[in-house]
Fold this sequence. Notes:
The complex is a heterodimer. By secondary structure, chain A is an alpha/beta fold. Chain A contains eleven helices and 16 strands. Chain A folds into two domains: 3-72 and 82-223, 3-Layer(aba) Sandwich (Rossmann fold), CATH 3.40.50.620; 243-359, TPP-binding domain (Rossmann fold, 3-Layer(aba) Sandwich), CATH 3.40.50. In chain A, 32% of the residues lie in helices and 26% in strands. Chain A is elongated and about 60 Å long. The termini of chain A are far apart. By secondary structure, chain B is of the alpha/beta class. Chain B is 29% helix and 29% strand. Chain B has a seven-stranded parallel β-sheet with strand order 7-11-6-1-4-5-12, sandwiched between helices. Chain B has a three-stranded antiparallel β-sheet with strand order 8-9-10, with no helix packed on it. In chain B, strands 2-3 form a two-stranded antiparallel sheet. The radius of gyration of chain B is 22 Å and the shape is globular. Classes of the chains: A alpha/beta, B alpha/beta. The interface between A and B is large, with 91 and 85 residues. β11 of chain A pairs antiparallel with β10 (163-170) of chain B.
Amino acid sequence: MDTVLVLAERHGTACALLTLARRIGIPVAVTFGAVNVDLYAVDPVHAAEVAEVNAVNVDTEHAVHAVDTAHAVGTAHAVGTVHAVDAATLARYGAQAIWTVESSELADHPATVKVEALADLAARTRPCCILVAEGHDGPEIAGRVAVRLGSGVLTGAVDAWMGPNGPVVTQRVLDGSYLVESEVIRGVTVCAVRTCEIEPTPAPPTAGSLKVGSLKLALPQGLRSARLVSREPHRHDLTTAAIVVAGGHGLGSREGFTLAERVARALGGATCCSHTAAELGWCRPEQKVDQIGTTIHPQLYLALGVSGSIRHRAGMQTAQTIVAVDRDPEAPIFGVADLAVVGDARDMARELLIEIERRK
Amino acid sequence: MRIVVLVRHVPCATGGLFFNPDNTLRRGGVRSQLNEADAGAVEHAWRIAVRRTGSQVTAVTMGPAEAAAAVRRSLVLGADEGVHIQDDALAGCDALGTARVLAAAARQLGFDLVLCGVAATGSATALVPAMVAEILGVPVLCSADSLTLDHGTAVIRRVDRTRVETLSATLPAVVSVTPRCGVGRYPRFAAVTQARHKLVRTWPLSRLDVPRHEVAPATLVRAVRPVSDRGRVVVDCDPPAAAARLADFLARRELL
């Protein structure tokens, strides 16, 4: 079995990527940071592996050796910075080896360091596939790694399996309206993955030990790269909210729109709006959800008086559960809804508030 | 300041899309237009150019004969000249091949800044700006919500999930802009007529320094299928009863 290199940056996405990687080959996680061994010992399932981790030598050559061994026994590798908790999680989700990458330039040139690390490790470990989460810079990293390796690259991956000629990837394309099965026929399969569509499932416990390798990375002299100047918290938390309530033209007025905000508060979620509601000034423009504005992937998306134009649907249709309330039974939003309620959005919002209050 | 704007000619998807037996997108019989995000990039290029002397904005597209329309539209929106790369060998070209061709064109034209509109994630073209930059060996700034140029440095701001990031790069660089950066103006009639006198060059692949094997697809599409509707429940009753059913539905999924 070939290894699959997984860029494990964040907890949530890493688990989904490792779940996908297990369907193709042996997952190897790539992380950025140092591995904390103590926390690792807490996990009883993998307690046997602690000795192995303690024996890790940060010297690159040893690390390479460790990963080569992992290859031989048929394991998967992850690349990145592993915090203690992460190592245990990565192992639980199937990482058979972890590469930790240390670089002093990570803070200034995050994307470039990740590209260099993946290209470097791809040359060392010869994986059959490289998986990157399709976050903000996922497509950038995937594209640049593919250029480095001269490989084909696929985006919007939602599923994958090992075919006779290498990994076969299911992609969700054109605003999610088509599923495409693709293969990379030249080089390593580089994939940007839609992690929100993959249910992370822990791997069955295995007897194999976790190998940890370390890579010290310095960017080549004179390499031209974008520099991260600052990173400040954004006031609104719409993109990461688990529950999102959307208000649209059907709420009738700015006062009507406050109903959406009250429902969101009652459910403990965030409020977003359709293009029309934003244009009418019922809410802030940054609350607008559409294809190239804010794209949301909540667990619950509840639309009140949103008809669901194609651009709005493109921004929310990956939500796990979609509930829509609209007057018009032909509203396009009902095409993607799990529960479609035909009726006046204001009346429904008021009744729903009472119902939620009653059940609390 | 030499600015190269990469533009795409895309089908209007209102009537649904159709695929050829070889799984390529069928373009015949479907109305196509300049991609909206790229119109924003042309607008931004024009705004940069109009404040500087000796600026030149070149719109570049790659595609079949009809794609020239995207270049023509870019000229109306403010580009000074256009290049249309058209070659039968480019049919079915994937992201890597496209990036190689566009990078070769930018290199041949000479550039301080390469601009393009962002693509929705999930479309292969979302990768092209970063790939072009990697091939050219210049920095890339993706998904700019605002772009300013100052003494040979490009500075962008973008919203990454819950954070606002500021990134900078020295020119030459590749920048992809979102519509929050600005959208195309509605052109004046004078601009439409003037655009007819602007130059559009059609380049075959041989005009660029790209060997044919480099544009051969590195990916293969095996099957395309439309996504069927999810199983859904329709509730059409008076509000209190409907609200109760809605609350039941949420409770069943542990959302309430």
